[in-house]
Fold this protein.
Amino acid sequence: MRLIKKTFLVINGLIIVVVTSILLVLYFAMPIYYTKVKDKEVKREFDQTSKQIKGKTVTEIRDILTKKINKDNIWYSLVDSDNQLLYPSLQLLDGVSESKDSQNVNIVTTFDNSYSNVKVMSQKVTLRDGKKMTLLGQSSLQPVTDASKVLLDLYPSLLMFSVTVGSIVAYLYSRTSSRRILSMSQTAKKMVNLEPNLTCTIHGKDEIAMLASDINRLYASLSTSIKSLQKEYEKASDSEREKSEFLRMTSHELKTPITSVIGMIDGMLYNVGDFADRDKYLRKCRDVLEGQAQLVQSILSLSKIETLASQNQELFSLKSSLEEEMEVFLVLSELKHLKVTINLEEQFVKANKVYLLKAIKNIIDNAFHYTKSGGQVMIQLKDNQLVIKNEAETLLTQQQMKQLFQPFYRPDYSRNRKDGGTGLGLFITHQILDQHHLAYRFVVLDQRWMVFTIDFPSHHDD
């Protein structure tokens, strides 16, 4: 059953039950309530009159009772101790019996065939001359059964009117409520397809508005999670592509030297030309294999960076660590007659100490290696920055700078392995710094300096 029809039927059913219940309560309770209220009013009026005539003469009492004929809804009578009527000049009413010793008001209810309610009351009073009199009061209550019959006659009309009004209200309410729910349903169907910038319209502060707000929060959270997953997926895809490219380049780097070694060995085996000088070519084979061993070691180190660089992080003094490592580089500077300036301020860093120092040493090693003879090298640690400057023998071009952090890349002036290493040093540095989420840049300054800068977040020794 649709919500509109269900709401319509429920509201109309409630209206019928409520109207019927109210009329039933009025039908049975109204006569009882009416009788009780009138009894209290009549008794109060009779008590006031009995107090008013106490200590009066018969003449004064007659005047008082005569004045009350048109005011009170009570017909008064006054009889003496001999049961003689003193006021008015009428016979005592049949059906009224009174105990001579009673001092309280007695109420007797009688019913006749016209459904009238007659109340008869009596009260002993003492006159001024000390005589005992009995004040009688008779009140006729209006019948209420006619009103109950009127309620029964009005019931069909009242029910029809209530159902009509209720039906209109129920229809309008159900249409309004269902329109909001249908709008939410249509929006939710679009959300299933992950359409962007979707929200359920919120009207008011009722439960439907709360549901719309919850759906909006759920979709916003879902969208955020999906975007995060997409970024992770793209990152993983990029990583896989980089690995595939790296393996392709690695196989190329390994293939050529190995082929060269195999060729030299074959030449020595068959005593071909100069290869007959085995001692000479064995030394060359050894040099090639040592280079390959160094390359393999770099590749193995690189494979561990992705999993280990972000683990085992600790807070340590970068200043103290660099001071310990600088001794080796200072010896190298003496051999090349370099001018080295070192300015290290205290800087605490939270990182994997082994890998971060490896990355920094790669940069410093390149700075010393590619500085012209007699040139300057400046190392400064200050204001959360590590700056490494060197007077390069050859400045890098913009095109070379873009490729510098790619695996196995060596500039044109350092193509041989003796000068250019394995070509993995800066690629490893790039991987380590990225794993630590550290910002870095490598630029040419004043057509004289090569400057490598690493930015560190602020940390304090706790």
Q: What stands out?
A: The two ends are 67 Å apart (CA to CA). Confidence is low (pLDDT under 50) at residues 90-115, 415-420. The first helix runs from residue 3 to 53. The chain is about 55% helix and 15% strand.
